[in-house]
Amino acid sequence: MLRHLMIFMLALLLAGGDASAARKKQRNMSSVKKEQKATQRAIKLTAEQIEANAKKTGRTLSALNALNAEITQHNRSITEISVQIDSIDASIAVISDSIRILDERLEMMRASYANSIKSMHKANSGSMSALAFIFASDSFTQAYRRVRYLREFSAWKDKKSADIKEAQAQLDGQRKQYSALQADKSAAMAKMTSAKADLEKKQKETSVLVAQLKKEGASLKKVLKEKEAQARALDAELDRLIAEEQRRQEAERRKAEEERRRQQEKQLAQEKSKKDKAKESETKSSTAKTAPKPKASPAANYATAEADRKLTGSFESNKGRLLFPVSGKYKIVRPFGRHKHPDLPHVVTDNSGIDIEVPAGGNARVVFGGTVSAIFRQPGFNTIVMVRHGSYLTIYANLTDILVKKGDALKQGQTIGRIYSDPDDDNRSILHFELRKETQKLNPSAWVR
């Protein structure tokens, strides 16, 4: 009996242990699932935070580029104003000398005139009038001489009076010009003071942004690496498209040459046939005549090809005078080529073209007449339009609302599309513009203005 009781109690203990282990296992599984969900949420939040930081860094970098462009413009304005002030100072010095000389001359003319009048009065001190002076003459001859003298003196007096008035007018004019130049100088100085104040303000804003970007080192590296990758991808796609175009043009050229060759052979065969028929119709006694040599038929084609090459030449001859790819206000926020960043140490930027910021809603326009050779999309650049001008190409990137299609012949200044306003970059509208001679990258700033 005791034995049975002990077995029963042992069974109860084992059953209770199994139930406790099951409950513990169930609690562990539940907590693990909760931890997994919490970890997933944390990972998602971290990814979102990294993405938000990257966007913020991108905005800050764009703002810094825009500020640097404005600083460059302010420095250029200050230099131009300084040159203007120097020119005004030189003009003021010349006019000051002119006023001094005119003043001295006028003073001498007045003194000479006054002395002459005094001498005349002394000579006629006993006379009551010019008429009495004439009648007091001892003879008719003396009277005539006195009349003549009085007339000449009157004419001299009128001339001297007119000279004095003219000199006075010149002096007044010079003084007015001097006052106007002084006013211009004051305005230029005020403009320079304002430009320097704006420059100082922009430089302070730049310092703030630079400090902020230095704190965001990891995000900055991520953004720069992303932009570099996007730029390389665009370069590769453009190279591929240009190479494809070159292959197609070469195939078309060969096809055209083959067609010209066939036409020549056909023309020669027709002329030979005419010649043979003419020989058959001649009598046996007639003297055979040598057929004239056929004229070279491809001349017109070569002239057309030359005209086509002249079109590319006209593009090249307009270097430095091509239309700017945007109208109205703009600023170049990233120049062409490889440069050390002016504010961020150890940061080097490489640009295959120039980046032009315009007010929101701005449009891109073709810089010279050409043909749309490609329209495609690329991450980071939205829609890209490539226009061919003979052997030269212009590329307009970061566009939306495209108004042209592949194969369209465009006139200089024709609108291509609207420049995309990026909501993740404070709605900045930045056109990426490139200029190439086939695959060779050229500095657009040397071609457009």
Helix content: 55-70%
What's the β-strand tally?
13
* Order of secondary-structure elements: HHHHHEEEEEEEEEEEEE
Q: Which percent band covers the strand fraction?
A: 15-25%
Query: How many individual helices?
Result: 5
Class from secondary-structure proportions: alpha+beta
Structural description of this entry:
The protein is α+β, with helices and mostly antiparallel strands. It is built from five helices and 13 strands. Strands 1, 4, 5, 6, 7, 8, 9, 10, 11, 12 and 13 form an eleven-stranded antiparallel β-sheet that branches. A two-stranded antiparallel ribbon has the order 2-3. The longest helix is centred in the first third of the chain and has 122 residues, at 2-123. The protein is flat, with a radius of gyration of 46 Å. The termini are far apart.
Offer a quick outline of the entry.
With 449 residues, the chain is of the alpha+beta class. The chain has helices at residues 2-123, 130-135, 140-215, 217-281, 299-317, and strands at 331-334, 337-340, 348-351, 354-358, 363-365, 370-378, 382-389, 392-400, 409-410, 415-419, 421-422, 428-437, 440-442.
Question: Secondary-structure map with pairings?
Answer:
Elements: H1 2-123, H2 130-135, H3 140-215, H4 217-281, H5 299-317, E1 331-334, E2 337-340, E3 348-351, E4 354-358, E5 363-365, E6 370-378, E7 382-389, E8 392-400, E9 409-410, E10 415-419, E11 421-422, E12 428-437, E13 440-442
Helix pairs in contact: 1-3, 1-4
